[in-house]
Write a structure and sequence with these properties.
The chain is of the alpha/beta class. 44% of the residues lie in helices and 16% in strands.
């Protein structure tokens, strides 16, 4: 029996975005890891939609699972499909859940962030999830990419978390996944900063009412104001320009 996402594809802006739940997505990823199928997991928010347009063909391939992230995606889905995504699958919440629910201990490599951030995030991952972090490299290292891939492979990493921001992290995965033995590659954005304590998340009640974006805008107005004004308008325009195709999907495990 093939693992499925138990949901629909609610396409936005030319991306095949899955509408599923956290638990079902965990099941799919666990099945793929178990059979050794290399899989890329990315989280599509409004910034991802804008920044990763040149990679749409690859991102829509069978090797990549695109999960929805954020209220902007829900609003666009309501406009185009008349319904929201089944769950909000942001990487900051989903990755710890996935790692906690994996049925075995896997080796994890962390790539990205400023010097020291990945190491602190790795310690938090081990403490919170029981998984084993076998190596880290910051996002500013200057070693040859082939040497870095060899270093990652030498650790025996099963899972590689890449935190470089959109679209750099997706480009890195696309260019180097063929040289990696890891079975799961995940673009995780600001996850290391949150886990290491370098960035603060909104209070739980703010997260529940889906206003975390406003909290971030208040913390970093200069950096975020364009993302939540001009870029939102560009995002909605791109969504309108692309046909809204939806349908059932069954990612295979081989």
């Amino acid at each position: 029996m093939q693992p499925t996402l138990h949901g629909e594809t609610l396409a936005l802006a030319g991306y095949r975005v899955f509408s599923t739940t956290s638990n079902d997505l965990c099941d799919v990823l666990q099945a793929r890891i178990r059979v050794g199928r290399q899989t890329v997991l990315v989280f599509a928010n409004t910034n991802f939609v804008l920044q990763c347009q040149p990679m749409r063909h690859w991102l829509n391939s069978d090797d990549v699972i695109i999960a929805n992230d954020g209220i902007g995606m829900d609003i666009a889905s309501l406009i185009q499909h008349g319904r929201r995504y089944r769950d909000n699958l942001n990487g900051t919440d989903f990755l710890p859940l996935l790692l906690k629910t994996l049925p075995a201990t896997y080796k994890i490599f962390l790539l990205g962030g400023k010097p020291g951030v990945a190491e602190r995030a790795g310690a938090a991952i081990e403490l919170q999830t029981g998984q084993r972090v076998v190596g880290c490299a910051n996002g500013y290292n200057t070693c040859d990419p082939s040497e870095l891939c060899a270093r990652i492979n030498a650790t025996g990493a099963d899972i590689v978390l890449v935190a470089m921001g959109n679209p750099i992290q997706e480009k890195w995965i696309r260019e180097h996944m063929g040289g990696l033995d890891a079975r799961l590659l995940v673009s995780v954005g600001a996850l290391f900063d949150f886990l290491s304590g370098g960035s603060r998340r909104a209070p739980k009640w703010v997260q529940r009412i889906r206003f975390e974006w406003l909290y971030r805008l208040g913390l970093e107005p200069r950096r975020m104001v364009r993302r939540y004004t001009i870029d939102i308008a560009r995002f909605l325009w791109i969504c309108i320009r692309h046909p809204s195709r939806s349908g059932h999907t069954t990612p295979s495990d081989h």
